[in-house]
Every structure is written in C-alpha cells, then in structure tokens.
Fold these 2 entries.
Entry 1:
Amino acid sequence: MAEDALNWGVEGLLASIDACPTPFHVVERAAAALTAAGFTQMDEVTVWPDASGSRFVCRDGSLIAWRHRTCEEGFRIIGAHTDSPNLRITPQPDTGQVGFRQLGVEVYGGVLLNSWLDRDLGVAGRVATSSGTRLFRIDEAVLRVPQLAIHLDREVNQKGLLLNPQTHLTPVWGLGLRSPGEFPDVVAEAAGLGSDEVLAWDAMLHDLTPSTVGGLDGEFIFAPRIDNQVSCWAGLQALLDSPAGAVPSAVLCLFDHEEVGSVSAQGATSPLLTTVLERIAGSRDALHPALARSLCLSADGAHATHPNYPERHEPDHHIAIGAGPVIKRNANLRYATDAVGEAAFAAACEKAGVSHQVYAHRSDMPCGSTIGPLAAANTGVTTVDAGVAQLSMHSAREMCGTQDPLDFAQALGAFLSAAT
Ligand code: ZN
C-alpha cells in the first residue's frame, strides 16, 4: 500500500483515490506512506520531550505530519481536507418498503444529490469496539439509489430533477422484509469482527467505478473525491520530497470535516494544529515568534470555467484545466489569500517552473469557502488558498486535468522549501 502512495505520477494519484473511500482511509494510507518514508508516529496522549525530525500524529480522520529541526524560520504549512460530500449510513439503518430491503442514509455536506443515482455503490468506514476502532470497506455493488423512470416523471427534463434527501435517496440493498441488525452484522464481517464486538460505526457510501485517465489525448482525470484528495495527495508528495531537516519546518495538515464547516475536535477550527505546533516548538514562548514567521497554504479544489456555463464565471478570471495551480482570491475572505500570500505562492510556482492562474468568483453569486480562512483565524498565520482546477465539484464523480495535480505537487514542494 505504501508503495502506491509513494508512487509519483498520475497512476499513484488514481490508486490513492481508489484506495481511500473515506477520510479514515486517507489518514491510514498517508500514515503508511509516511511510515515507509521514515516518519515516526507520535501518540497524542503522551508527553513529547522532543518532536524534531520527521514525525506525524493522527486523530480520527485528520493527520498532521512534519519535518522539523529549528523554529528559527517558522513553519511552512500545507493544509487540505480528507472528507468529501457523500451519503452516510444512519445509526439504525435497516429499513425498507414495498418488498425492498433498504438502508437509511443522511446527506453529508453539499452533495450534488443527482450524482448518486444509478451508481453501483459500496460502503466503507470504521467500526468502534470496546478496544478501539477498525476500518472496513465493501467494494462490491451492494447498494444502489435507483432513479424514477421517466415514464413516471414526465416533466423531469423540462422542470429539472427535485430530490428529497429523506425520501428519494434511500438505497436498496436487497429483497424481502427489513431485517433489523442486518447492517451491523454485514459491517462486522467486513471488519473481520464478531457482531457482538461492533458497538457503533461511521459508515458512508462510495461509487465503485475506478478512477481513470480520460479525454482523447488523456488530458483529464475522471474520479470521485478529487475535492479534496488531489490536494491531500499533492501535499503528501511535497512533504515526502522535502529535505529531512527542512528549514523552515515543513508541516502537512489533513483535516476532516471541511465539508460540514470544520467545527469538530479534529477539524480545521479545532486546536489540533496549534497544539501540535506548540509541542513541536517546545513551548508557547517559542511558538509565537515561529508563527509570526510562518506561512500557510490551504490546498483545495478550484472551479475551472465550465464550457457549457461560461456565464456562471467571472468573465475576466476564467480558469482553464491544464493551465496550472489556481490561486483563489475573495474580497470577503471566503478565501484567505491576500497580496502577500498570492505573491508567495506565485513565486513558488515560478520556482517550480509551473504556470499559475488567479480565481475570483462572480460578485452576484455567493462564493464557496474552505479551510484557509478558518486556519488563518485560528493560527494568525498568513494563508493563501490555492488548488487544482476541476469541474463537477461535489459530484460523486468529478474531473480535473492530468497534468495539474503533478504541477500542484511541484509548486507545493517549492512552497515548502522557500525561505520565509
Ligand atoms: Zn474542498
């Protein structure tokens, strides 16, 4: 597994996405890659007399990794998020109607609901036992959310598809009467445990179609979870490529829960990053001047200009797939980037030999956001929001360019190695 994660190139990226149906799998895979590269895992519940060197710590669906020798030049921080919008299994999921066994789901984040229809779906996540947690995944087509036939919804192409998340997204997974306790049994078996050992679960659906390179000349990547596993992969590559005694210290943060606002014990608004940085610095007195010298890059997907809807984009800030990393600006700080941050990342792109683009949202449409402004508010560190241009953001199946993730990883590498 670690060898795949370390595989530089598009094949490594596609393998990484397919291997990670949930944030927990992203963290497990990143941890394996870091360990294989000589990083040491730290335990949050112990005192860290010395956190220098190449290390990482995991907290559920979040991970922070670093290379540290001295605080003299501060930290260069890359942040990304491990979660993607999807459908998540309810606590008492076994349900059904009219002869179908079904599973109850809740919508997680800003899902394009229609994108989950008529797909072959697996289920993955983690189970909690009395002795900890264990990951599981079922990569067989056990679930499907069937769309209503057009003969029973004659106006759907004229009036659009309206989906009620409570009633229209419940996947089928068998025939017969609902069977309370069936889902926990299936999950326990997938986790290699007995039914009585599984106390609870975090479980979510994933599309089983493998990620692929597409387009006539292989210009595109078609895959799930491009937002934001492309950034997680690029950030991890950049950190793995950074020198062991990096100055400034190189830090990679992979946060869960961005798609629902980042307010959790391990999200970007949590104290996770600042407490880890303080432990790396050795004291609060050492931390504060280090933070004042630091720079953060919040890595997340950017909107490419859609060829079928160019009018939805700011006409003087069109973003092209294949034209390099996108720096995101927003006057109302939905993105954290200011002139200083933009200049710093533009310089990193130039150093890496890749072009970059600058995005601005239309003023007459509400703008999305990401972990950048939250991390900036939490740490006081100058932050730039940047990422890979993509289409179909928040669909179960998204697309981006083939070259852009590689260029982004190169630019992130240059960002980490640039002196503050
Ligand atoms: Zn995102």
Entry 2:
Amino acid sequence: MRIAFIGLGAMGGGMAANQAKAGHQVAAFDLSPAAVARAVEAGCSAAGSAAEAVADADVVVTMLPAGPHVRSVYADAIIGKARKSALLIDCSTIDVESARAVAEQASAAGYRVADAPVSGGIMAADAGTLAFMVGCEDAVFADVEAALKPMARVVIHAGSAGAGQAAKICNNMLLGISMLGTCEAFALAEKLGLAADRFFEVASQSSGNCWSVSTYCPAPGVGPQTPADRGYEGGFATAMMLKDLKLAQDAAAKAGGTTPLGAQAQALYALFDAQGYGRKDFSAVLQMLRGRLDELS
Ligand code: NAD
C-alpha cells in the first residue's frame, strides 16, 4: 500500500515508522525538515510538500496539531491533489466542527474520508498500540481499520463523520474529571491521616474505583507503576489534557451541552498549566491539591 503521512511530530513520527515497518511505501511530509529526516531514517521516503506526498497515495494520514492545520492542509494539499480513489484519514485531535467540515468537503469532492483520533500517548504511537476511535460511513470502516492496523491495538467505529472526535473529547473530559476526583480523594485521605496505600486498597476495591484509581494512580508508590512513580514525567501531558478539555467545552457550548464538571476541570488544569507544569503528566495535579508543588521538579 502507498501511504502519504503528513505531520511527523511526537505522535506522527512513530506512527509513520510503524507503517513503513509493516512494509508499506510511506511518503512523509512535515514542515520541520528534522522530522522528515527522522521519518526517512525509519524507512519512509521524503516528500517535498504535502501535495507531493499525496499524489500517488492509496491512503492519506494526517497527524497535525489542531483544527486550523487540518482544514488548511486538506484545502491546499489533499482535496483535488490526491487521487479520487484515495482513502483520507485524519488522526489529529481536533474540534468536531472542523472534522465534519473537512469530511463534507472531501466527500463532496468524491473521496472516502474518516476522522480517527487516538487514545494512548507517544509510547503507544511508537509501539503501534494506539486505540483509534473512528467517524466514517459504515461502508468505509473496514478499509479504515485495515489501513490503521499497523499503528493500532484496537480500532473502534464510533459512528459517522465527526463521531471519532466526539468520542475522543467525551472520553478525555471524563478522564480529566475522574483524575481530579481521584486526586482530591487522595489529598483528603492524607489530611485525615489515612495512608495512601491503605486508601488505594479500599478505593480500588470499592465503589470509588475507576481507571484513575486502579490503573493510573496519581499517588506515588501505590498500585501499578505510573508516571507518579517517575516524578510525573512521560505519560499524558497536562497541556494535552487542557487542549482536550477546551475542545470539550467548546463543543458543549455549540451543542447546548451541560458540562459544569468539565468546565471546572478545565479551570483547574489551566491553573496548573499556568504555574509552569504543562509538560508534567496530568496526574501531577495531585501535588497542587496537596499544596506540595515544591515536590515537583
Ligand atoms: P506535535 O506538535 O509533536 O506534531 C505535530 C507536527 O505537525 C509537527 O511536527 C509540525 O511541524 C507538523 N505540522 C504542523 N502544520 C503542518 C503542516 N501544515 N504541514 C505539515 N506538517 C505540519 O504534536 P503531536 O504530539 O504529535 O500531536 C499530534 C496530534 O495528536 C494532536 O492533534 C494531538 O492533540 C494528538 N494527540 C497527541 C497525544 C500526545 O500524547 N502527544 C496523544 C493523543 C493525541
């Protein structure tokens, strides 16, 4: 299969490499020459522009920062430049409105198109174990799933255009809220003289259990290994969580959704980010709630 890969950053670099590893011909483009050079080292070929990358492609994958980037790359370099038989898949996390607009323009021009944002960070991108949530027509899904396979642990069909983005921001809003709830509970447990490992034992086997407690516990030295055990390095950056919470709030405002806890979560992560901790894992917000930011390097 000939794949065009546009956007070779922290996520796209590893994803493009996994397509090359699977034996596909990957024409890679990024505005950063260093990112293109890394992709070439991983077995991709360098394209001089996005339009050049897509010219002969069977599948076009984009992994770009945000909605405006996806809109402009689709308008300037994909629609009308890729062959009509090409399958267009955007894996970036963007606003639902942009995803639907791009899908509408691409479909009107005769392309098959899907939004397929991912769950899992840079390590999962490198390992080829991302979870994809896909918005596309039923008839297109099997081809999307096959194209994403070298980069995926699981590919889930969420619904029609934009449904992948909707699933992603709803999931991450829930995660942001549940992590804050978990952090508040651990911080209060400490104030009440309850040892973190005892509280973990109780909460992980009681009705307070959730993924943020049992799998990604924000308290160091408790439960399975998490970013909390390595100074909150790696994992899912606070700035990324903040981006997704903003997308959720924007989407809720446009759709008339009521998301007061999502709004509160956005405000708390914004406060943490503004204090210079945007690169720390999002579970490090525990240290702010404990009043122990001095423990973060
Ligand atoms: P990144 O900033 O590392 O990479 C984005 C890349 O896009 C950069 O290399 C940039 O040069 C390139 N780019 C920007 N505009 C371009 C254009 N017009 N043409 C070609 N290349 C262009 O970001 P990332 O961490 O790889 O994230 C990519 C997407 O994946 C984002 O939407 C993000 O929200 C989402 N995401 C990230 C993570 C994560 O942990 N990093 C996890 C899940 C989803």
